[in-house]
């Protein structure tokens, strides 16, 4: 784990990955960003909470999967609570920083437990814009934890750059509390209208399905992931960071036999490549704009 | 501010799906025949911290309540009028309460106050409301069998009109009492009784040796100087009991054994099983490896785990342990502490701070559908199965360690004591802050730091308790509950602290607690002084000896140089891991334990570690009388195959496997189930080490207790071969075939046997049991020599018997070989499922008339006589050729032949993607032998048509062409021209998937939300 306080001096996109207190998918998430051409820095949550590391030095903030604080009060609850209430020596909470981070146009990704944290913290879907929880993620309909591969369909209306150009992908789910519950029709309607339900469980043909095991947890709208209205904050239950190479897929050996030239990259890498590319383009555009301003 | 006890209740809102309540109602009906009506589950939190009404309300609604799901009730227990009875499940004082701790953590964040974590302020409980007015006895049964365990939980139950709450009120004042336990003048009987009464688990010779130590003038002089009484203190006898326990000292594996073969009359003496068959055998393998330029064997048998070199930068550390006794009395707690405890072994090998790569587990249970009587305090096999499974789920998943491989074996002789084998592989850099990572160095003056969890009365006597038989009076304090989150924090901390060079070395606190960890480390420097008053406690009321012996979980003992202490403590604070300086190492030759300056124990390390008298044991081997059975004529082999696929020991384990995370860390390449269907069972797991290279490790487990009824030697040899061939099957290569090939192999042996100490009354067949163990060890030596595969660590569990009500249930002698081998490129590994229509199907290896002990005979309740034997030279030749075939990428799929023989292996190879096969077996041998014999060292492999010539040329007579992979989804087997099996493979998969294991555990079917 890198415990250095500031990101390396580099032109690369800077991804900050939080760990500690039971988070356990930080290494594969860092590998995903590195494979996508970014610098990835893993820091212990307390380094951020105590003010030793500033999230504002980074382009994209990541909440990996795991069992933060053991998930004994419900997945992600204690961590979300810490981000909302725990104040650093300057009296600021991490939620204050997150507000600012998002207002600056930066990106936040939460996977599995990280998604649960974003939902419980009110960052997703954040229809009201006031960071209050509006939906929840709770125990799977089966009441059990499950590790299995699923196929997801990308909502063509989504605004998030993470999913640009992806129609569908395969990924593993590994959770016991992934059932999205949307409490009322009005919220549901707005989520649909804004295309915030960016990922939908589907069958092998790409058709949306309600049935287990295609929809592994009984989620409302068969929804596997959400974004905020701007598409900057993105969370999903399945694990794209666990499908970085072909060899993670349960059927890799047969697929390779059937198609010896099959690419060695896994579906999951795409969204990391997307966001890194997007941030690079943003920077490029900003530099151009700056140059134009100077030249005018 | 109010200081009274406050209560927060969370109830699901009307219309929210109560999965837990529904599961309880269903399980009560299914397993206990109790009709509960609707069950509602609610969460209760008792807050013993001064908060205002306003704070309590805000804490409950913004920190605990999920506004979408829950209603909140404050200072009342709310329930609908339709409910008639209740069960409240609380925890007994001092039992790990992670949920309460989490809530307390949340309260601290909410108030922005550092709460005194030494005191438990919030207690979590579950309250179940039942629609039916059940009598108290039924409620108690439901509580004890489905909702909790009376050893760790307190239940309140009854009609709802009479609802009682319970909150633990931990102990009174501190008990700084150290008693003397006089030995002088005790008769032999009194010595033995004293040992039994105090659970020292020491025999007469050992008790006498202790008495002799205390009567020596030298000892008496030292004790006077130290201010200790002439007679031993309670703490001293406890330390000796723990250090000399079978669990810690392996006395029976080190004993002198007089072996007699009753069939031949031959007599000989075995001077320590461990030395003769394990240590010396490995030394010989190491000599051969080094002679061939393979010097990757770095550390064997001398630390918490064995270590081999992966490459110049890193080591692979591998350990497998058992946790049988605790799992028998508290299946969930036993299994979770088993897996977490086993994780600590590689974590604390050498300097410490290895990164955990994967877990494995092999479990042996009684038949979950057992419907005979249960003895006092014996749990039903189904309950043990479900509890252990859940413990492994939480232990692995919550630690972020993938569970990649395992096995479940059923035999009714495991219904008294189940076997729970937990394995963990890890990677450690060769160098940590410039030091050799695998070395443990300690000098006088180094500090002793306890890291991680706190100490309570949990787990007292675990080491001695697991060294004796279980009976109805087994102590409740031997049970512990693991806290994966506490350990995860300590694990993250260790990784950073060791890389910064802040830790000189470390060890884990497992069986025996501080007594064991400090006692062992003191052997390196030559002494230690421990100040027990500094040890942080979960609650007061512990006596000094209890603090020293407690096995409270998630603790490490760290050795730290004084000048690095401040930096280490600062890191601990940053990462919220509690560190306590509890003493220092010396070179004065004594383990010196004090409480607030007063002496509690002082023992000479020489006596502590080398004073135990050696055991002498008797073994007598006699071959069992056995014969081949007469089976019904004209069997329908389609039917036989279906029965086999649906049998307890062969059927799918998918419902268990899917509840384990087998791919966290993103490095698992071969998972337990593969293929497009995700239902093709694999032989070994393959995990890559990191994201920068394609190097990896294959992991397998060999265990065949059934064959032990015929011959323990062949059972042991077969289990070893099974583990080897599973690794060969996925594309692994035998070691040492070429100079300097650097393909490491690392094996853990784990023996679990019944009490093998002969006693004419209590254990009349003890000599035969011990003879079986000797034969198992002989086979182990022969196997390691034949394949040149070294053992690196292991374990023996010697008293796997459950005794109650005058009945003894003993496990069959069992050995597990847990094997790992380096894979040079994980992209070239091979899975078991058929890949393409038209591929040619081969059997590799030779089938013998060896149906003895087979699953096929088991269908007819027959054992037979012809036990499968391993022909090592033949097997090694085949495995070598397969390695060459894989180098040329000639093999498309490979599945080893084991339970159920060729027929089952063929069927399983079709489960990945709906293909079939058309095969023909020889007319020269009977159908039954060819289809169902479980001869070792065999595989079903497929080869692409274009590679057939090259493959056949390479393998020669080792490969028998059976037929082709077909696209029609039919498995057709001909004996000569006669069709003996013709079955749809999708149907076969269904039979296999709907077998008794998935039926017991249940599949994750979608439950309609209410």
UniProtKB/TrEMBL annotation, chain A:
GO terms for molecular function: phosphoribosylformylglycinamidine synthase activity. One of its GO terms (cellular component) is cytoplasm. GO terms for biological process: purine nucleotide biosynthetic process. Signal peptide: none annotated. PROSITE patterns: GATASE_TYPE_1. Pfam families: GATase_5. SUPFAM superfamilies: Class I glutamine amidotransferase-like. This is Phosphoribosylformylglycinamidine synthase subunit PurQ.
From TrEMBL, chain B:
It is an enzyme of class 6 (ligase). Its EC number is 6.3.5.3. ATP binds at residues 319, 749, 794. Mg(2+) 1 binds at residue 321. Part of the phosphoribosylformylglycinamidine synthase complex involved in the purines biosynthetic pathway. Catalyzes the ATP-dependent conversion of formylglycinamide ribonucleotide (FGAR) and glutamine to yield formylglycinamidine ribonucleotide (FGAM) and glutamate. The FGAM synthase complex is composed of three subunits. PurQ produces an ammonia molecule by converting glutamine to glutamate. PurL transfers the ammonia molecule to FGAR to form FGAM in an ATP-dependent manner. Monomer. Part of the FGAM synthase complex composed of 1 PurL, 1 PurQ and 2 PurS subunits. Belongs to the FGAMS family. This is Phosphoribosylformylglycinamidine synthase subunit PurL.
